[in-house]
Amino acid sequence: MRATLMYGAGDVRVENVPDPVIKHPTDALVRITASCVCGSDLHPYGSMKPEDGPARMGHEFIGVVEDTGPQVTTVKRGDLVVAPFAISDNTCEFCREGLHTSCSHPQANFWDGESEEGAQAEAIRVPLADGTLVKLPVAADSALIPSLLTLSDVFGTGHHAAVMGGVDERTRVTVIGDGAVGLLAVLSAKLLGAEQIILMGRHRERTDLGREFGATDVVAARGEEGIERVRQLTGGHGTHVVLEAVGHMPAYQQALGIVRPGGVISRVGVPQYEEAPIGMGSLFRPNLRLAGGPAPVRAYIEELMPAILDGSIEPGKVFDATTSLDGVPAGYRDMADRKSLKVLVKP
Ligand SMILES: [Zn+2]
Ligand SMILES: [Zn+2]
Q: What pLDDT, in 10s, does the model give residues 164-197?
């Protein structure tokens, strides 16, 4: 079959690889009908060393079950399924607490990078299929597929940011980042009832979508100027919650400048730094809390799906380009150049 491999920074290729096979009785084989390129794929695209490659890529997908191991009971051949970006058993102590990204099963893992499977491909072996896969009640050619695909990562991740930030109807929220996760953090804050949602982003098309998703204000400025602008919009105090969907140090420092005393910084942008200020002058003196981490999106799929199925929300609007597998290298390039927000892949 054909699959996407990253050989190093800026070097993505689509090549022939062996077809996946069932290895464990709890595995399923899925023929992928929709996958995509993620903002987090752009981190290795910008920095991966050739000696760390080649790596299979892709961790968001919808597909049709082609075969199952003898112990798989919740999905069967022919089912259309969505997979979260982390493999989990959905039964251990951590999964039962809704923290599937800390699943204690030995086969629990993230796709690509750490496991040998990648979703920017024609097919994939799914470990722990009963825990990982969720059946979709639509056909593979449904117009809802782009929105349902966001349940794999970006919608669940934006929602996790808002949940970890404790967003409710009494909360003012700032979202830092106008990528797919930031925009869906806006939608999630709106669904949780936030009274004010300030989106910090510089791309007009993206911030316009952010307004459609529920942003009440947009701040294009960054750094000290951006902090000052948010303070002006909030009576000088900043917001109760800051959802940080970027992962670079300037975004964290911006969050520190914007959050209101007693508030929460909730991070879902994968940190590209090892150390950040947390001491007296940053988190301690104003009684700030720091929350967030890799989103257990599996925990949110059933909760977020009904509003997609009934058409009341359309998170799939974050996809602004569609390509075949052959177009994946160009899709990475376009996302890195910020010509595309998020690229849907139809193998
Ligand atoms: Zn992703
Ligand atoms: Zn588990």
A: 999 999 999 999 999 999 999 999 999 999 999 9
Tell me how far the alpha carbon of residue 59 lies from the centroid of ligand 1, in angstroms.
6
171 CA → ligand 1 middle, Å? 27
State in Å: Cα 341 to ligand 1 middle: 13
Task: Give yes or no: residues 281 and 316 share one domain.
Answer: no
CB 162, CB 303: distance < 8 Å: no
How far apart CA 238 and CA 111 sit, in angstroms, is 37
Separation of 43 CA from ligand 1 center, angstroms?
11
The CATH code of the domain that includes 199 is 3.40.50.720
Distance from the alpha carbon of residue 94 to the mean position of ligand 2, in angstroms = 6
Q: Containing domain of residue 313, as a range?
A: 2-153+297-345
Residues 139, 206 within the same domain: no
pLDDT of residue 285: 96
Ligand lying nearest the CA atom of residue 57: 1
310 contacts 286 by C-beta, under 8 angstroms: no
Of all ligands present, the nearest one to the C-alpha of 40 is 1
Which of 62-66, 260-264, 272-276, 310-314 shows the lowest mean pLDDT across its residues?
Answer: 272-276
138 with 11, same domain? yes
Distances (CA, A) of 219 to 165, 227, 229, 266, 277: 20, 9, 7, 19, 24
User: Do 249 and 309 fall into the same domain?
Assistant: no
